[in-house]
Each structure stands twice: as C-alpha cells, then as structure tokens.
C-alpha cells in the first residue's frame, strides 16, 4: 500500500489520459450488460405477447437488433479503441517518467553505493522492475477497477430482478474474493523473494560476462558455471513455488466461480417452479451471474501482475530512497575560481566507518604548485583524491578550498575546478572525439585536436581507421591502456581546470610516451595546481612538495632533496627503486 501511495503522484500526472481511458472502459463494459435485459424483454414481453401481430413482433425485433448493432459497432468498438489507446499511452508515459527519475537517482548516488552494489543489480531495477509496473498498471487501472464497476452494476441489475437470489449470488462471489485475497498475500511474498533473487542473478551474470576473459585466463570457467548452476537451481526452485501458488489460486477460485452460475440457476429454478420468478428473469439472472465471473477471474489473473508490480514499485522506491551522504547544501555557494589553497585540516576518514584509511591528515596545497603523494600500496593516496573530489565526505576534520569547507560549495562548481585522470579511465562506446569532448561539450573540433596533441594522443588517433571519428569501447576499436590514458589526459587538457588530479596517470605509458606526457604536465604546471600520485618516484622528483603516506598518515613531507636528506622512509623507497631500475637496465 505504501508503494501505491508513492506511486500516485506519477499516476496523477496522467489524469487526463486515464480519465479518457476510464470513460472508454465504462462504455465498452457497460454496453454488453444490456444484453440480458433485452433477452428478458424478448422472452417475457415480446415473444409471449398475444396482442401484437406477427409483423409487429418482427418489426420490434428488427428495431431492437438495429439498436444493439448500433450500440456495439458504433459505440462499443470505438470506445474499446479509446480505452486501449489512452490507458496504454498513460502507462507508457509513467514508465518513461519512472525511468528518468531512476536514472537521475543513479547520478545522485554516492561512490559508496556503487562500491557496495553490483551494476547488474542496479540495471535490473531500471529495466526489469520498471517494466513489471506495466503489467501492474494494466491490471489495476485497465482491468480490475472496471470489472469492479461492472460487478456493482450487475448486482444492481440483479437486485431489480430478484433480491433473494441476488443475495445468494453475492455471498458465493464474496467468498471467492476472500479466497483470492488470502492466496494473493502468499503469492506476493513469494514474488518478492523471486524478484530479489533475480536481481542477484543478473548482477552475477553481468559481472561474469565482464570478467569472462579473466575466467579463461585463470581457467575458472568450470567454477563460474557451477556457481551459475547453483544460482539458477535456486532461482527455479523459487519460481516453481511461485507458479505452484498461482496455479492453486487459479484452480481453487476458478472452480468455485465456474460452479456458481449453475448453483444459482438451480436455486432460481425452484423459484420458477413456485411461480416467484419468470423464465425470462431466470435466463437474465443466469447471464448476470455468469457475468459476475469476469471480475473474479480478472482479479485472480491480475494477482501475479499486481504482486510483481507492487514488489517492483517497492524496490524502485527503496532505490529512490537510498540516502545520499555526499549532499549539496540548499544554499550552496559557487566556487567561481580557485584562488589560494586546498587545506586538509586534521582529516580522518574510514570507508566503512571503522577502519581509518586517512588518519589525522593536515596538509596545504597551494595554487600553482605541484604536489605528489607517494607511499606503500593501500596507504590512502587515492583516497585523498576521493576526498578532494567529494566522492566521499570526511568523517572528522575539514577539507577547505580558499578557506571554505568544500561541503559549502555546489558539487558542480567544485568539480568544474577539477580535472582527474586515474589508473582506470572509462571510455564510452562512442567516437574518440565525443569521448574527449565530454570534458567540454561545446568545444570545437580544433580545441579537441589541440588537447589531444598536448596529451600526445593526436598521432595514434590519426592512425586509427576513422581518425577522431573512430568508435571505441565495446562496439568499436579497442585501445591499449596507454592510449586510454592519453585520451583521459586529453580530456583534462580540454577541460583546462584550475586543479589537476593525476592518479598514476602515466603508469600505463611506455617510457618514451611517459616522458612526453610528463613534459606536457610540467608545461601545465606553470599555470595549474597539480596533485599527483605515483609509484615511480622518478616521475615526482620535480614536485614542489611530496607527501609520504603510510597507513593513512603523513609520515614525511618536503621536496625531493629535503626528503632524501631526511634519510627516512622516502629515501629508502627511492634507493630501492633506483637499484631495481638499474638492475632492470642491466
Ligand atoms: N571503496 C572502498 N571501500 C572500502 N575500502 C576501500 C575503498 N577504496 C579503497 N579502500 C581501502 O582503503 C585503503 C586505501 O586505499 P587507497 O586506494 O586510497 O590506497 P592507495 O595508497 O591509493 O593504494 P595504491 O597505491 O595501491 O593505489 C585500502 O586499504 C583499500 O583497501
């Protein structure tokens, strides 16, 4: 019920279309209800009328036939079209609106959500769950409610024919509704389990498809298949239970609803024998009782769709309600220009709220200078960049830009000042030019080429089959790690932000390209603030200041020369790397 309340605002946006659909439905369903009354008139009044002549009777019969023909073909048929067209159009629009909102939610989610949930599971909500709502809306808005209206009308008409027989029929049908309702609760809880498991299954399959090549390399295909078999077996056990319950509902309710007309006619026959009911009335009654089966059948058949739809709605609204921790303040300021410094003031942070990955770090990153973070793997270097970009918020202390806590700035204005290249750069399945242009959507082709030149990407791009128009990614050419990195660098050159964050940005390049790209970065260094992370210390020796991170703490800092003089961890690391590089060269 809760999910229906949340869903209603969407339904309200399509009020007009639903209203038209409902009017269409009323005509489409109510016109057939006149048939039993006409039949009764024919039996009781026309056929048995001894006053009217044969030709009068034929005349009346033809007139009635003409009216019925008109009602069915000139009203009911167009109304059926109106009903189908407007209701389905309203349903489609609601589905589109839900998809748009779900996608907007994807963009507002924290990094933590993506780290904790598989993309396949998120995708299931977007496609599978939202699609399930179509069946739910059809059942609820197109079928069930109109059947209930029909039911009320049928009961009203039956009351005019014979109240006692009507009461018996209503009790019998009421019992079927109660039974259907009780069984629907069971179906709903099973459906929830099935749908939750389906998203686990699709998350698993998507991940294994992405990792299929790794499975080959590690010969873990057999293990993958066994895991998948396990998931599929479990899933099919759940669906077996679901279909079993649905079959039980259908069979038990249907047998009752099939038997009801006969029972009512048998009792009605007693009334006819006693002279309390005319034969025409009994025939009309039979037709109406038979008509009562429609709503019950519609309800029973709609149960799985309604159950699936309400679980799907619940899952979608749960997803929409996922709390966002990295939030923008209502009165967020715009960071117009980075003027002075980024400051970490006694910052601590843990991804899981417990184990500190950044521990009481205080640093100052001044405008126009180059800084580097070095240290052992897992020491917290990338996390520092995550905190500057506000992918995560600090637990203690503050990150300030130009003296203001970054939480006070709008996310857009903060991120406009930042350009990021990481170890793992993402390219969309589109052309190279579009991939670079995402950094500045209104950039001219000449600007894109200029940025690619600075990133030493221009040459390899022009060698590709379609140059800058070559499609990359899943459906296009595959780029090497180094080529991808250069595209990512080109994005940063194009964006031309005040602060450049480079996380192992040249690690996938060969020595020659690395030197060239380093030269570009150094050129950039005169005008920009650069924060880089590098394992290879030779790439950071020119930094104005190097921070050595270990277990989330800054253990040493200074420029390369000063750090060597400290004779500490940095010097140790530097010497070791130098020796291994020399050994490699020999
Ligand atoms: N999204 C995450 N959720 C939970 N823990 C994380 C997450 N990302 C990183 N960590 C953990 O935080 C710690 C610091 O990771 P971080 O990536 O900052 O290290 P790093 O110094 O950049 O390492 P490397 O040099 O290997 O890239 C590691 O122990 C890592 O396991």
UniProtKB/TrEMBL annotation:
Kindly indicate where the leader peptide sits in this chain: none
Single GO MF annotation? ATP binding
Chain ranges passing through the membrane: 17-38, 58-75, 135-159, 165-183, 262-289
Amino-acid biosynthesis as a keyword of this entry, yes or no, is no
Its GO CC terms are:
plasma membrane
Q: Where is the ABC transporter domain?
A: 336-576
The family database entries (Gene3D superfamilies) matched by this protein are listed as: ABC transporter type 1, transmembrane domain (1.20.1560.10), P-loop containing nucleotide triphosphate hydrolases (3.40.50.300)
The primary site where this protein sits is membrane
Instruction: Identify the keywords attached in UniProt to this record, alphabetized.
Output: ATP-binding, Membrane, Nucleotide-binding, Transmembrane, Transmembrane helix, Transport
> Could you tell me which Pfam families the record lists for this protein?
ABC_membrane, ABC_tran
Domain (ABC transmembrane type-1): give its ranges: 19-308
Compartments in which it is found: Cell membrane
Q: What is this protein called?
A: ABC transporter ATP-binding protein/permease
């Amino acid at each position: 019920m809760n999910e229906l309340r949340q869903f209603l605002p969407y339904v309200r946006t399509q009020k007009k279309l639903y209203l038209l659909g409902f009017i269409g439905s009323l005509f489409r369903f109510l016109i057939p209800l006149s048939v039993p009354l006409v039949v009764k008139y024919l039996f009781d009044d026309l056929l048995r009328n001894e006053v009217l002549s044969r030709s009068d009777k034929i005349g009346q019969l033809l007139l009635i036939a003409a009216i019925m023909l008109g009602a069915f073909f000139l009203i009911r048929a167009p109304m059926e079209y109106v009903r189908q067209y407007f209701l389905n159009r309203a349903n489609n629009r609601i589905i589109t609106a839900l998809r748009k909102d779900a996608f907007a939610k994807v963009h507002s989610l924290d990094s933590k959500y993506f780290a904790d949930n598989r993309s396949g599971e998120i995708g299931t909500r977007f496609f599978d769950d939202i699609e399930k709502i179509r069946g739910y809306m059809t059942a609820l808005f197109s079928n069930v409610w109109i059947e209930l209206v029909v039911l009320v009308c049928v009961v009203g008409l039956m009351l005019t024919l014979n109240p006692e027989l009507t009461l018996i029929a209503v009790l019998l049908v009421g019992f079927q509704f109660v039974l259907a309702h009780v069984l629907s609760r069971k179906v709903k809880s099973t459906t929830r389990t099935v749908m939750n498991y389906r998203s686990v299954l699709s998350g698993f399959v998507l991940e294994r498809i992405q990792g299929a090549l790794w499975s080959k390399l590690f010969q873990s295909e057999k293990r993958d298949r066994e895991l998948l078999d396990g998931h599929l077996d479990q899933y099919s056990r759940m669906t077996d239970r679901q279909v079993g319950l649905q079959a039980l509902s259908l069979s038990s309710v249907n047998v009752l609803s099939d038997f009801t007309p006969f029972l009512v006619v048998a009792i009605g026959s007693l009334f006819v024998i006693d002279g309390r009911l005319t034969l025409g009335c009994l025939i009309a009654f039979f037709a109406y009782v038979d008509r009562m089966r429609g709503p019950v059948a519609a309800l029973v058949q709609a149960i799985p769709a309604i159950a699936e739809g309400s679980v799907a709605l619940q899952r979608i609204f749960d997803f929409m309600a996922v709390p966002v921790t990295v939030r923008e303040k209502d009165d967020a300021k715009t960071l117009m220009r980075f003027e002075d410094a980024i400051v970490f003031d006694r910052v601590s942070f843990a991804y899981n709220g417990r184990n500190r990955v950044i521990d009481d770090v205080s640093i100052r990153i001044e405008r126009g200078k180059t800084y580097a973070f070095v240290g052992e793997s897992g020491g917290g270097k990338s996390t520092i960049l995550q905190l500057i970009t506000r992918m995560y918020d600090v637990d203690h202390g503050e990150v300030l830009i130009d003296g203001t806590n970054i939480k006070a700035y709008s996310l857009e204005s903060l991120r406009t000042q930042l350009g990021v290249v990481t170890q793992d750069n993402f390219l969309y399945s589109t052309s190279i030019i579009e991939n670079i242009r995402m950094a500045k959507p209104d950039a001219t082709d000449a600007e894109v080429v200029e940025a690619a030149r600075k990133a030493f990407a221009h040459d390899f791009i022009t060698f590709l089959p379609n140059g800058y128009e070559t499609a990359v990614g899943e459906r296009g050419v595959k780029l090497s790690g180094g080529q991808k990195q250069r595209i990512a660098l080109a994005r940063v050159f194009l964006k031309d932000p005040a602060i450049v964050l480079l996380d192992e940005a040249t690690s996938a390049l060969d020595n020659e390209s690395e030197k060239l790209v380093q030269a570009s970065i150094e050129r950039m260094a005169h005008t920009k603030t650069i924060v880089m992370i590098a394992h290879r210390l030779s790439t950071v020796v020119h930094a104005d200041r190097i921070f050595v991170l270990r277990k989330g703490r800054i253990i040493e800092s200074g420029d390369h020369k000063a750090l060597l003089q400290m004779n500490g961890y940095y010097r140790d690391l530097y010497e070791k790397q130098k020796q291994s590089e020399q050994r490699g060269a020999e």
